[in-house]
Specification:
Two copies of one chain form a homodimer. Chain A folds into two domains: 40 residues; 98 residues, K homology (KH) domain (GMP Synthetase, Chain A, domain 3). Chain A contains three helices and six strands. In chain A, the strands form two sheets. The first copy, chain A, has a three-stranded antiparallel sheet with strand order 1-2-3, with no helix packed on it. A three-stranded mixed sheet of chain A has the order 4-5-6, covered by helices on one side. In chain A, strand 4 and strand 5 form a beta hairpin. Chain A is elongated. The N and C termini of chain A lie far apart (43 Å). At the A-B interface, strand 1, helix 1, strand 4 and helix 3 of A face strand 1, helix 1, strand 4 and helix 3 of B.
Chain lengths: 140, 140
Amino acid sequence: MSIHITTTWKGNMKFESTNPSGHNLFIDAGPENDGLGEGYRPKALMLSALAGCSGLDVASLIKKMKLKVDDFKIEIDANLTEEHPKIYDKVTMEFHFFGTELNEDKLQRAVDLSVEKYCGVMEMFRQFANLKVEAHFHEK
Amino acid sequence: MSIHITTTWKGNMKFESTNPSGHNLFIDAGPENDGLGEGYRPKALMLSALAGCSGLDVASLIKKMKLKVDDFKIEIDANLTEEHPKIYDKVTMEFHFFGTELNEDKLQRAVDLSVEKYCGVMEMFRQFANLKVEAHFHEK
């Protein structure tokens, strides 16, 4: 399957990029890099792609497995190397589940299925970064 | 340097993700995957990250080299593999420059500097995909 996006320069350091959802997004540098901060920093979008891809897997499995979860969030910490080209070499991804009746085994299974089988973005990250994924459970 | 983002589940298939710019973004699946289409598709955000990272390099070099460019855009075509986990295995990135006085040599040099030296996202893509980058010049 082929995916196509178009990214158009809007002058100075600003860009507008398409997305298959139909929603466009703006990218911009911050003032420290001569931009006006009127858009997302592109490198961090990689991390949102990772969280979103795996998060959608887990959200889908929560539904399929009929699991009870009040809230969940994903915290990502990524280390950027010092020299150009700067890449993410170490990435930690923490799932945090909140609820009164958390089925920890099944939630862990959902995370494992995303990590081991479904999440393509994670598979791409593994080609350049040391990736650690953890699940934490917060019973209310 | 460490980069941190938080991605929070908003129910069903929707997520809200932070970005160092201070602008949050929404991620959602489309109706075909049980979502409401109220956000970006995460996998395509990887391509916007690639275009944005390299585009910012080139925009910065256009400024430094005092080059005259009316418009430019970046077209990305990415092939997704068929089996889970689905990754981008072939990526084509085309820079299109438009203007009346395009200095093709220097613009090509700006693209080459991003490709060979500066663009960290491109370096990450090279670890999992066959990447082809082209520059096209459209004199008005």
